[in-house]
Amino acid sequence: MRKFLIYSSLIICLGCADPEPKKDLPIMGNLPVGEYPVGYKTLFTYDQTRNGVPYSDWDGNLDTEYDKESGRQFQINVWYPAEQGSGQSIKYDHYIDLMGRQTNFDDTEVQKEFARRRFISNTRDLGNKEDFTEENLNQLLNLDVYARLNAKMISEKFPVVVYPNGGSPAFQSITCEFLASHGYVVVATALKGRFSSGMEISGLGLEVAVDDLEFVLSKISESPNVDMNNVSLMANAISSSVCASAIARNNKLKSLISLEGGFPSSFEQRLLNESVFYKPENITVPILVIYASHPSIDPKYTFHLKYADRYYAQYSQMSEFVMLNYGMFDSFIPNILGEHGGDTPRGFEEAHKLILRFLDQNVKAETGELFATDFVQSQNEIDTTFVLSGIPSPPNIALLKDLFLKGGFDKVDSVYQGLSAAGNTQPFSKSFYTSYRSWLAWKKDESYSNRLRLYELAFDSYPESARINYYVAYYSYKRDIKQKAIDHYRKTLNLIDNDGDLTKTEKERITAYAREELNELLASSQ
Fold it and tell me: H-type helices in 99-170, by residue range?
């Protein structure tokens, strides 16, 4: 199989530039494109630290024609502000054909035919209907797109938006072109699973996909026109939860857009909670949640992310997946994903105006209120908007260790009290207390006084935690504060059966210790 060199597709097609396309392209609808012409390129590359994987369709059928030894395959699609008049015009079929080159990079007629079959099949699956035909597909293939292939990039740095999708680049190209025209480098890729191109719907699957995102970011950082200090993530479906998981691991990322994603669902929040990284204190960036009416979606499932400014916009007349290219394709093939109560192309356009406004305010620091009255009133398809403002987040554990070393536990207590006064009723997480306790135990607290103070703070935040009550009791016991120890041992035993934070083994261990130490205290008091 013919192999592609990394960045081989970046070579500029000198002498093949043709006139600039018109700005009123039908595929862009009424989207207000920006000041920049848009270039487009595809990187075919490998992560050589991992094995390659076969292609898997949505049902799990494998296509084993791939080069396993070259490494994990990555097709990275990039849209960017470009120089006027450079590059080559392309049509939408270019994006669809790339769907067939996710794991096998060969550019053949066989691969193109495979990609077009997949697009038809995927469209039918997304719309739960069988009437999207090859004739319908042909209506889309010949549409002119706004971007120009291998156009010369402008020699300045632009903020980055990464938009993963399993149907990349055919499913999100309009969004990517629109944002690139407004001064963003937009990156699209298909995230994969451990053993195939299909992402795994599990907590482990999210972590594997985050590793893919990190690899893509590493590759994009090599380009001279990207500002890696201003990277945002945007996604739909379960990829939105992958992006949330990535932000929990990487605090350099600047914002998150859940575009009709599963992120505000109880199911995906359960998956996210399987990660040791997914803690409220690790998510402090602004979040925009765009959602339609769906039985599984409810903003309340993200209300616990209290350190992030969260912006919610409901498009009640839209439905799942119309914020992909399909929303605009409804103009060419009515009800392409089924019937809608609202004006689907207009809903798509209005949502994208909101996305741009959110990015400009949170990445480019433009002033203004996201849901300003005049803006919302002009958006006919928005049903509901509201904002939940984040509260001050605690310092990370490294800073809190440093504070202790330089000023003693009083400094840690001062941070806690300051956050509490600012409205944070639980300034530190339960897991923080466990980690900090272990750190103090190493030659920093021979008298147990600092650990007792630590768990007094923990009890202030989590009075119904059996584990925390146990440690208040234990360190009071070690400090010979007998009545306090007795009271908290008793409370531990009263709470432990119903404490969902503890495993069966933990409950058995804490119960045994609490009873033994309580009996010892009671015996000594007689």
Answer: 109-127, 134-141
